[in-house]
Amino acid sequence: MKKDDISRLLQRYLSAKEEGKEPYFDADQIDDLLDSFEDSNDYTYFDEVLALGLKLHPGNSALQIKKGRQFAYNEDYESALALLENIAETDNQDLDMLKLECYCSLNRYPKVLEIIEELIARECDYLEEIFEYISPILNDLDMYKEARDFIDRGLALFPENLILKNELCYILEVEGDVHRAIDLCNELIDNNPFSYEYWFMLGRLHSMVGDYEKAIEAFDFALTCDDSDMELKILKAYCLYMNESYEKAIEVYQEVEGDEEMIRRISPLMAECYMKLEKYEDAYQLLSTIINDPDMEDGPSNYINYIRCCTETGDENEASKMLFKAAQLYPDNLRILSLLTIYLLDRGKKEEAVAITNKIFKIIDKKSFDPETQEECDSLLHAGHYLYSKGEVDKAISYYKKVLQINPKTPMIHIHLAMAYFYNRDKENFMEHLSQISGDDLLYLIHEMGPELLMGSEFDFDKKGKYIQPKDLVKEFLKNKDNSN
Length: 485
Prior knowledge:
Shape: elongated
Oligomer: single chain
Distance between the termini: 79 Å
Radius of gyration: 34 Å
Number of strands: 2
Strand content: under 5%
Number of helices: 27
C-alpha cells in the first residue's frame, strides 16, 4: 500500500479515536497499518491497532501471528505457542519461523528438528530462509551445541550459504578452533571482498591467536569499507600496542571520536603507550585526569601506572601519597602491596615491610590462581629482585617460591632461586633448582654468576667435609644425561 494510503488510514483511525468511536477496517488494512508501524519503528499505536484488528477479525491468521510476535517480544513464549499452534495453516513462512523461534527460546530443540524434518519432507520453498533465520537465534541463546548441529544440517542442504558459514565461523570460535574459523572467514571474504563485517571478524580472530600483523592488516581492509566504527579502531590500536608499534597505536587512539565515556576508555590505553615510549610526562597528564576524575573507574592498574609516572618524573611525594591511597582502595592487590613493601624497605621500615609481606603470602594462600595470572608473578618477581639486590636474600627466596607456587612455568624462576641459594651457600637447594634449569638457561646462569660460580668461591662441603668447587657442581650437573634438555 502506498504511503499516502497508509497516512489516510492512520488519520481515519486517530480521528475516530478522538471522537470516541470504534472505526471499522478490513483485516488487510489493519495488517498494512501494523506493517507500516514496524517499518518506521514507531510502535506508538501498534498495540491498540492490533487489539482492534483482532476484535474485528479474531480468526485472521496474519493478525494472530502478529499477536504471537508480540508475546514473543515480551518473552512470553508459552502464550505465543498456544496461539500459534491453533493456526491451521501450512506453507506460512512467518508462522513457521515464529514457532521455531519460540521452541528455541524454550530450549525445546527436538521440537525444532521435528518441524524442520516436516518442512524438508514437504520441500517447502523457504527452507533456506528458515535455516538462515534460526541459526543466529540459537547462537544468540548460547545454545552452541544445538547451533552447530542445526548449521551442519543447513550446510548439508545449502553448502554455499554465506549466512550459515558466517554462523559456523562464530561457532568454531566458541569451540576454540580459531584457525579453522580463520580459514572459513577467508573463504567468506573470497565471496565478498568488500564486506566490512568479514574483515572485522578476520582481524578479531587473528588477534585472538596473537597474530597481530595479520590482524592489523585485516582491520585496515575493514576500515577501507567503513571507517566509522570506533570499536574497530580501538581494537586495531590494541593490536598495534601488542605489536610494539606504540607511536602508531597512539595515532589510532587519537583518531577515535566519541563521548566522554569513550575518551575515558582509551585514555589509560594511550597512557600505557606513552609509558612504553618512556614519555612519562605525557602519560602522567592522561593518568592524572583519570585518577582525579570522581566519575572515572580508576582500577588498580591506573594507580600503579600513575605511581610509576610520578617516580619517573621526579614527583616522589605524589607517588608515595598515591601508593598509600591505592593500598587503601585495593587492600588485596598483590602488585600494589609489593610496591608498598619496596617503598617501606627503601625507607628502612623493615617491620612494616615484613607485615605487608606476610599479608601478601596470606592472600596468595587463600586464592586459587590461574596459571596465566602473570601480573601477580611479575609483581612478586620484581619485589624479589629488589630484595635480592639489597642483600635481603631470605626474603627474596620467599617471594620467588611464591611465584613458583602461583605458576611453576614462570620463565627463569629456577635460575633466580638457584642464584639466591648459591648466595646463601645452600648447596642442597641450589642443586635442586639447578637440576630443573634447561641447557640454554644454565648458560645464562653461568654468564650471570661468572667467576663466582666457576672460579671456586667458597660455597659448601660434601658430607665428608671435603670442599666442592662450584665449577665441579656444574660439571656434575652437565655430565648427567638425565639433566639434558
